[in-house]
């Protein structure tokens, strides 16, 4: 299985690397592997859906 780093995932998904780490810690990204101080993310994993709402309306992707 091919893995990418947090930095590569943040560039691919257009979000900060800190946000990717938060998603990993929360278990929102499936199939991650925790190496000593970093995460390895499967290369074919899609960006998790943003669960936030704005005034009862969904934020568009």
Task: Write a short abstract of this structure.
This is Helix-turn-helix domain-containing protein. With 61 residues, the chain is an alpha+beta fold.
Describe this structure as you would to a colleague.
The chain has 61 residues and is of the alpha+beta class. It has one domain. It is 28% helix and 23% strand. It is built from 2 helices and 5 strands, in the order E-H-H-E-E-E-E. It has helices spanning 6-13, 17-25; strands at residues 3-4, 33-35, 38-42, 53-54, 57-58. Strands 1-3-2 form a 3-stranded antiparallel β-sheet. The chain has a two-stranded antiparallel sheet with strand order 4-5. A hairpin with a 2-residue loop joins strand 2 (33-35) and strand 3 (38-42). Helix 1 (6-13) packs across helix 2. The longest helix has 9 residues, at 17-25. The termini are far apart. The model has no long low-confidence stretch (mean pLDDT 87).
């Amino acid at each position: 299985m091919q893995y990418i780093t947090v930095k590569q995932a943040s560039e691919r998904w257009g979000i900060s690397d800190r946000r990717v780490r938060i998603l990993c810690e929360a278990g929102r990204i499936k199939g991650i592997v925790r190496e000593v101080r970093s995460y390895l993310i499967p290369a074919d994993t899609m960006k998790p859906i943003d669960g936030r709402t704005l005034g009862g309306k969904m934020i568009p992707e």
